[in-house]
Design brief:
Helix 3 packs across helix 4. The chain is built from 6 helices and no strands. With about 80 residues, the protein is mainly α. It is flat and about 50 Å long. The N and C termini lie far apart (about 60 Å). The chain has one domain.
Length: about 80
């Protein structure tokens, strides 16, 4: 599979788990707690190592929060109160 895709790095189960945690779960908004459970970690501290890699989520989550706080729908609700 690696040869077909042009990947020269050896593929291991560790790399597969790491890719699943970062690329599939965390970058798509799955919580650190849920990711920890899916990976079978006994401590969330182990999972936090993966979370540090996904700094791009911070900006995306701030954008989502801004959208929720400042959307026209929320402005109408604030005026009604």
């Amino acid at each position: 599979m690696a040869d077909i895709c042009g990947i020269t790095k050896p593929l291991t189960t560790h790399i597969a788990r790491h890719t699943f945690a970062t690329t599939v779960l965390l970058t798509n908004g799955v919580s650190l707690e849920a990711t920890s459970k899916m990976l079978g970690h006994k401590s969330i501290k182990t999972t936090q190592i993966y979370g540090k890699i996904v700094e791009s989520r911070v900006g995306a989550e701030m954008d989502q929060l801004s959208e929720k706080l400042f959307s026209p729908k929320n402005e109408d609700t604030k005026k009604a109160q």
